[in-house]
Amino acid sequence: MIRSMTAFADGEINLDNLTILCELRSVNHRYSDVSVKLPERLRFVESDVRHLIAGKLKRGKIECTLSYKKQPGSQSLTIHTETLEKLLTATAEIEKRMNNPQGFSALDVLMFPGVQQEAETDKEQLQKKITHLLNDTLNKMLDTRAREGAQLASLLMDRCEKIAQLVQLANSRMPEVLNNLRTKLISRVNELVAEPNFDRLEQELVLIAQKLDVTEELDRLQTHIAEVLRALNQPEPIGRRLDFLMQEMNREANTLGSKSADREMTQISIDLKVLIEQMREQIQNIE
């Protein structure tokens, strides 16, 4: 089963007076690149989050965002009295030294960092909840990747079938190409030479046939097609392997074009390269 690298998944879970939210986004990337965004209160789980993501998503640029919000009705404030006392003492001392001190409101005091104190949440319980949430969200993302991967596999198999048809057409076309070339050369020699040396002519035709022979290229294309179809059924990530196979197939198609001796073989080479490029673009998104 192949998986796409493009997917999105989200989820949330409740703990005490908090709702914890998780969002996962992934796009294609040559390697595995995991970035984690989370508030300071959840910073202690970053290492576990990275490890969990890397264990399930082998390739792609993955962005994980963890956040939390207080549930409605739980917006009570707790004042950190020690910080408040220190702040008021410092403020009074500063005002003594000012010529024209300006007053401030209680809201101004509440805005000062550390004055408001959030209720402590058990970190062990919080870590378990986040792990459970992340696992659920990762499973959703894997399902999305698998669904899109199945569609990509269908497209690739369709292209492989068309490439195989073109290879078969080229194989059947080559004897006719060589025969046409032989007839054309003999006719041309007869026009130019009164008594041609047909033995020498046959030797030259053999050399030309060897230069135009594309049997090896067509055989390798068939082998690469079989390998692509085999790889599509593998459980492990195959994106890089398929990308390499596309490079090899494109090289064979280019060689086929350079050895082309007539218009139809040139067109087959062009059609092959178009199909291979279409496959390569899709493979860029496979894990």
TrEMBL record:
Cofactor list: a divalent metal cation
Gene source species: Methylomonas lenta
Domain Endoribonuclease YicC-like N-terminal as annotated: residue spans: 2-153
Protein name: YicC family protein
Domain Endoribonuclease YicC-like C-terminal residue range list: 172-287
High-level lineage: Bacteria, Pseudomonadati, Pseudomonadota, Gammaproteobacteria, Methylococcales
Family classification: Belongs to the YicC/YloC family.
UniProt keyword annotations, A-Z: Endonuclease, Hydrolase, Nuclease
GO molecular function annotations of the record: hydrolase activity; RNA endonuclease activity
Pfam families xrefs: YicC-like_C, YicC-like_N
Superkingdom, natural source: Bacteria
